[in-house]
Amino acid sequence: MADDGMLLNFELDDAPATSQVKFKGGRWRDRVRAQNSVKKWQKPATDDANRPAKRQRTEDGTVDRHFKIQKTATVDHVPSHAMKTGAISSSIFTKNPTAVTAFDEQPEAEAEPAIPSNAPLSDEASTFHALGLSRRVAHHLATKLEMKAPTAIQKNTIPQLIKEDSDAFLQAETGSGKTLAYLLPIVQRILGLSMNEDGTSKPVKVHRNSGLFAIILAPTRELCKQISVVLEKVLRCAPWLVCTTMMGGESKHAEKARIRKGANILIATPGRLTDHLDNTKVLDVGMVRWLVLDEGDRMMEMGFEDDIRMIVGKIRKDKLERENKEGLVLDGILPARRVTVLCSATMKMNVQKLGEISLEDAIHITASKADMEKDAETGADESKFSAPAQLQQTCLIVPAKLRLVTLIALLKSTFSKRGAIKKVIIFISCADSVDFHFELLKSPMPLETEPDAKPNPHIAATVAPASYITSPATPTVMVHKLHGSLAQPVRTSTLHAFTNSKEPAVLITTDISSRGLDVPAVDVVIEYDPAFAVSDHVHRIGRTARAGRSGKAVLFLLPGCEEGYRSVLGTPTPTSQLYESILQKGLSSAVNLPAPYENAENENEKQTWTSRAEALQLHLEQRLLARPDGDEGDAPKKGGKGKDRNAKPVPSNPLLDAARQAFRSHIRAYATHVREERVYFDKEQLHLGHMAKSFCLRETPGGIGGGVAKRSIKAKDSGKIQSGGGGNKTQSGGKGSWDAEDGVGAAVDGDAARRMKEKMRALMNASSEFNLG
Asked: Is residue 433 over pLDDT 90?
């Protein structure tokens, strides 16, 4: 054949030819991930590197654990077991957004501790007796309650409320003693009906049937109970005076019985008091001299404006009685008019609106007399509230994928010191997320109690020993949960257990615990989810650093727009910190895994904090994939090609269902920040896949934008509440099911009916707290 001059030119690459790798077995998702991993590492080498890519080494010569090759990507066959257990998993240290905050270098020497701004005064002339309290009351405070000196707000408030009959607005930082600031003048003036100034008794002694002289309103049941406990301690110096409570969740018949017996001071929530004013004729408010509105801004936010208007109107409508049924003249000792006292740590527009409803020619009382004089000249302003000076605030910048392991590392380092009985409060945005994190952190092994100890059934599901966060120095840590969907006896018992815990304790809670609660010795407050408004943030961090004690507050923020939230938190501005230092400190030693995982694999002593963080995240994800029967992997769905449609579906892991529901509720709650702060919490910039990692989920659940999640209860044979979305489709509307959103139900027997009623009761209890899902 003649040469026609055609020239064929084949250019051969220097890189070695790679063969097509085909994976078999396992799940199709894992095969796709493995195939993509192979393609990634089969890319041609660059001019600077003519060899296959390998793990990079750091400056100290150690292998970078963030940059690794999946072992299953180099074989032709992936074992089915490796696929199910998740041997192929994305690293939590890759593809994270970069923080924009310029982190300041840590100072070489620690600064001197700040002088506490809410501690009792050290001036020798500042005593309770000098403020106008009788020797009987002052001696009782000093000997029985160990309170020898007042705080600044008490020093400015007590003389004013004892000598004057004008309305007052009390504004002071949290933990400064506002409760005693208004309780002590009320007790002193009522005690004056029975005692002379020299301490001798009068011929007529006031008792519980002498009349109702004061009403104190509080937004939550927990705050009502706390005020009642403080008042009962004060009244031990005058046992003939009686106080009582009225709040939701309690028996109205029992409350009516207590009113019939008589009470001098009433502590109530607005809704329950409105109910009794309308329906309980024995409740007589004709002799009420004081109306105290504690946490007024919170009551307005919870929608109690109409109830407060009705209460104020009802009390002012009745004629003020000058003497009681026994002929005891009340004027001259008690105020000649009805006095209203409004208390709040912040001054917002809704507080000013509440003042217009309830106050008449009120004086503004603050902890500083300079501020009082300024307010008298220029009027009260809306200056931002400042946290206690001794409170150490930190903003922790943490990517979404690292939130959970960072939280565990922070708790683990907090309880690493031997002999320190510390208490930590973790604030989370919604009740579903509280339930999930409690179930995740608690130990499956029950707490060993003394044989003679009687268990409390109310805390059986809300208090448990913790796992992951313990250490050889602190082998036992108790974890508690508290939110508004729990029954009132459960909430009361759980809060009591946390307050009186003799072991290091953690309370996982919603904003229901952010207002007014005085839990002794709270060392750290962790805002795992930022508050919905800056005012809520103020009350959250106020659970620590109370009455002059030191405290620490840690706020978790995501890199990006959330970092700007630091600028609106008031003064002093919290310091910024990157998550790496927390992980290095908390994961410097091995994590104690709960049973039955503690003996699964011996940890290598040379593991770094990064490898421990990845191993911990992988372990948590595998816990959610484990089936109740002990196998691992997602539960197969009912029906399908090649499957027996009559076979019973394999039940999914309850912890996986809880994680999916918690994720949905968290995303919905994220979109409910106040309008002024949504520029920092933009839901459009939230990476749902990364956020799912913080709930130990490998895939983003569905059903986020459908409002309140639909839940269904199957017939008696299952008796379980299943959440829609993700891998489990909602079965509402079917035979023997009940849909909480549509309100269409069918007959359900046994435990399922009881759980259905509890869920409905929780959904209807909208005044307790913001509770999504």
From this structure: yes
The burial of 636, by beta-carbon neighbours within 10 Å (0-12 exposed, 13-18 middle, 19 or more buried), is given as: middle
Instruction: Mean pLDDT check: name the lowest of 41-55, 81-95, 351-365.
Output: 41-55
Q: At CA 660, angle to CA 658 and CA 664, rounded to 5? A: 115
DSSP annotation of 728 reads: S
> Identity (one letter) of the amino acid at 595?
A
Helix (H) or strand (E) holding 339, with range, is: strand 339-344
Q: Each residue of 85-116: b (16+ CB within 10 Å) or e?
A: bbbbbbbbbeebeebeeeeeeeeeeeeeeeeb
Give this prediction's pTM.
0.68
Tens digit of pLDDT for each residue in 86-117?
Answer: 444 558 898 899 888 776 544 444 445 566 66
Average pLDDT of the residues in 731-738: 33
Sign of the alpha-carbon torsion through 434, 533, 359, 543:
positive
552 vs 410: CA distance, rounded Å: 12
Domain boundaries, the chain: 28-85, 135-377, 391-447+459-599+606-633+650-700, 707-773
Cβ 691 vs Cβ 713: under 8 Å: no
Q: For the chain, give the number of residues.
A: 773
pLDDT at residue 187, rounded to an integer: 95
CATH code for the domain defined by 135-377:
3.40.50.300
Q: Is the dihedral of CA 44, 47, 50, 52 positive or negative?
A: negative
Measured distance CA(67)–CA(63) in Å, rounded? 9
Residue type, 717: D
Residues 6+ positions from 598 with CB-CB distance below 8 Å: 592
Give which of 9, 344, 293, 18 is closest to 170, Cα–Cα.
344
Which CATH fold topology does 391-447+459-599+606-633+650-700 show?
Rossmann fold (3.40.50)
